[in-house]
Amino acid sequence: MTTGAAGRRAVPRRVAKVETFIVTLPRDTPYLGPLGPDESVNPRGYIVRKGNGTIYPTVDRSIAVRVTLDDGSEGWGETYGICAPRATCEIINDLLAPVLLGHDPEEVEAIWDELYGLMRVRGCGGGFHGDALAALDIALWDLRARGRGLPLAALLSSEAPRPVPGYLSGLPAATLAERVEMARAWQRQGIDAFKFAAVVSHEGIAEEFAALRVALGSDADIMVDLHWKFDAASAHALASRLAPYKPRFLEAPVKPELVGELAAVCRSWPGLIAAGEEWYTEYEAALRLPAAPLAYVQPEMGHTGITQFRRIAALAGRYGALVAPHATIGTGIFLAASLHVSSTLPNLWKHEWQHSVFARNLALLDTDMGCERGVYRLPGGPGLGVKPGAAFWEHARLVA
Ligand code: MG
b/e map of 361-389 (b: 16 or more CB within 10 Å)? Predict the structure, then answer.
């Protein structure tokens, strides 16, 4: 390897090729659980959840990106592909990749800023454009670390990686009794932190919280994802009902646009509110954190990429918030990135663990990443420590 004193290559390597892939996996039970009352699958394979009016696919779907350098090195990134995935692929292929060609991955942070700026004045501060940026950003960081033969965590920090505990997310069963039993079964396997989804609390949110507290005991951490369902007044009323059951946090109580209402809920319930999975950038974090004293900030690597994830986590620290990274459904590429970065954060609490798909989707990758008794195992090897394996290619389709 030809490197300078700081480990930087003396001869720059340049991006030569960018490819996008849609990866689709069938699943038996829709994400968040079986269909609820008045919910159905539309002709394109989507469900609109009545609980929060949000659309979800009935398959697991993700977008993987391969960036190849002029020396033949490959880096991998990933982003959301759950809805209209070809839109994100088109943004990468038509808009971003041609600008990225010829850039040196060592400049990844400046590249993010440049590519973000391409569409800044057109209102593309996130959404599909942000997802496209995230996938490329992760691949460029993967290339940087692989170029040095280092795991990503070691590139980011000279300190030993910190443990990354996980919390169990989601109880995808049809009835409250079945969800409680599912949580108890995990507890018997050593899990001590649980989050359920209010969108599918068909028997009532407070009723589900109470049943879980009784079943899991006073030591368990229990959280509820409120999926942006409420305004400040109704979120306040619900928090009052849940307080006796000692929630660790209440997630996403109000609609993302209602910054003032989020701030009001945070001020009423200090230490209790979590939010941030839908943020893409430090700019969104900076608009909210000064007014809304969140206890937990939840960056999602599939939206933020590594560059913005780190900047958001740093801002969270500045405002006294812990980081509890969000984990959406993917092949595991962006999850690997999220675990590496999380292991470097002084203000990490626990990382979300999508137990219903995590182990299954690991079969797609060549990796030793894992999660045992509620603690993640960081993938070893250089870069992200993950690469698509044979099973990945059975489910992946190149998007030209
Ligand atoms: Mg959530």
Answer: bbebbebebebeebebebbebbbbbbbbe
